[in-house]
């Protein structure tokens, strides 16, 4: 039976990730260039004390790498905006809809503008950015336009191909993956698979889930296991997230 709490838990962590990103334009987390102050959730660190939060950030990154070694592409399925985007535009309902291209453009625009603003406002508050843009400041106009164009390219054109072939985290994950990493296993001993393709239709990465769920491309999002449980009953899903 698939873990019925897995997706709700994943949604909570995804929401926390979005709130964290939102905290940057709101200036709870930012770097004040003029005063050389790093602000982490409202607490300011000057040059002399900045190494405390920097150590904490490095520790957090190492912890994510450790988790990736044990649990697979956990960052993708729980925190990455691209995965959230793909879950929306590659849902079975979306794939069957004629309006999918419009949906892709709308969500791509939302995420591209949002992520660009997150990056810019880490260094400059929105008010300053608008002032610089209205005064024709070319560096900020150029950086903003390049970021939006780059993100739009990823969201509209590359989509899951970027996750599989271009994302630096995916490359690191390939190195970290071993026999001791959690994988999504498919087994059909009783030959009960009805070939309904529910598992394939729901995969955000468009994997042929029954053959590719064990690959490093799989984000262990558990959606195929849940789709199979919908088809065969909760006890009979043919997919299982397996910790060696
Ligand atoms: S194969 Fe299953 S667990 Fe892996 S990404 Fe696709 S839906 Fe998610
Ligand atoms: S969802 Fe289950 S029953 Fe349907 S094709 Fe996939 S493995 Fe087979």
Shape: globular
Rounded Rg: 21 Å
Strand content: 5-15%
User: How many helices does DSSP assign?
Assistant: 13
> From the helix content, strand content and strand pairing, which structural class follows?
mainly alpha
Beta-strand segment tally: 5
Q: What is the helix fraction of residues, given as a range?
A: 55-70%
SSE pattern, N- to C-terminal: HEEEHHHHHHHHHEHHHE
Widest sheet: strand order? 1-2-3
Straight-line N-to-C gap:
18 Å
Poorly predicted regions are none
Largest sheet: 3 strands, antiparallel
Oligomer: single chain
Can you walk through the features of this model?
This protein is mainly α and 244 residues long. The protein has a domain at 182-242. It contains 13 helices and 5 strands. The strands form 2 sheets. A 3-stranded antiparallel sheet has the order 1-2-3. A two-stranded antiparallel ribbon has the order 4-5. Strand 1 (29-32) and strand 2 (37-40) form a beta hairpin. Helix 6 (100-123) runs antiparallel to helix 8 (138-158). The chain is globular and about 65 Å long. The chain binds iron/sulfur cluster (2 copies). Residues 193-199, 210, 227-228, 231-232, 238 line the site of one iron/sulfur cluster (SF4).
């Amino acid at each position: 039976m698939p873990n019925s709490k897995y997706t709700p838990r994943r949604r909570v962590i995804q929401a926390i990730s979005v709130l964290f990103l939102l905290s940057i334009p709101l200036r709870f987390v930012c770097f004040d260039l003029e005063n050389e102050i790093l602000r982490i959730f409202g607490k300011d660190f000057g040059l002399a004390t900045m190494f405390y939060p920097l150590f904490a950030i490095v520790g957090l990154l190492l912890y994510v790498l450790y988790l990736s070694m044990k649990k697979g592409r956990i960052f993708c399925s729980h925190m990455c905006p691209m995965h959230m985007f793909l879950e929306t535009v590659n849902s079975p309902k979306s794939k069957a809809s004629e309006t999918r291209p419009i949906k892709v453009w709308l969500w791509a625009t939302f995420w591209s503008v949002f992520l660009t603003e997150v990056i810019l406002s880490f260094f400059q508050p929105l008010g300053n950015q608008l002032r610089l843009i209205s005064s024709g400041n070319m560096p900020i106009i150029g950086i903003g336009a390049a970021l939006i164009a780059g993100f739009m390219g990823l969201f509209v054109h590359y989509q899951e191909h970027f996750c599989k072939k271009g994302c630096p985290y995916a490359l690191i994950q390939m190195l970290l993956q071993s026999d001791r990493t959690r994988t999504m296993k498919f087994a059909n001993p009783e030959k009960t698979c009805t070939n309904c393709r529910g598992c394939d239709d729901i995969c955000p990465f468009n994997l042929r889930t029954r053959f590719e769920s064990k690959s490093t491309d799989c984000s262990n999002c558990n959606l195929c296991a849940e789709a199979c449980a919908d088809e065969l009953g909760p006890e009979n899903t043919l997919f299982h997230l397996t910790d060696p």
